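Reopening this ticket.

The earlier resolution said the output was attached, but the attachment link was broken on my side. Pasting everything inline this time so it's all in one place.
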Amino acid sequence: MSKFFFGALLNFTGVFMLFSPVAAQDSLRVNVANLSQDVNLLEQSLKTMRLEIEELRRENARIRAQVAAANSKSATSAQISNLSVAIETLRREYGFADTQQKQQILAELNRQISALAKETQSAINSIAKAAYTPPQVATPIHFSDDFPKTGKTYVVRSGDTLSKIARDHGSTIKHIQNANKIVNPSKDLQVGETIFIPISQ
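Inline output:
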């Protein structure tokens, strides 16, 4: 179960790193490599434990052979009883050692997976925070009435800009903007539009 979960987590981490910043990818690669090494060490421990189990089984078989030999030679019941007790003791010790080592391996593996999951979630949160752009609220523009009320109308032609119109007609950009409430000259100044050009007397 743990190996399957670890494999799924590695697959998820691989996909996640495709969309992560380089720094987050490097951090995750190091952690995944460390976790892989830990899993390899745990597998080596399991192999060692299996060898020890095989040794215990051989010892068990040897004792059983001794018991059989003792029976065939009419050994005393006390000797047989002692051998049976030794066999049962070995079984209990093996069962306890096996259970304890498995629990330690699973606990360590779960700890490593939990740590990697927390770091992955932290990286996801950092990326989401960096990618979030708060909506920009347009600053309201206030137009002034402080411009000459005398002047003339003008039809905007191709190539006109506020500065060109102001210069050609003796006005100012600010006066033309205030008089016509032009927020963005590049968008609000349209060819063919009639505007008022304030001109001081």
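Reporter confirms the inline version is readable. The CA atoms of residues 68 and 129 lie 74 Å apart. The two ends are 90 Å apart (CA to CA).
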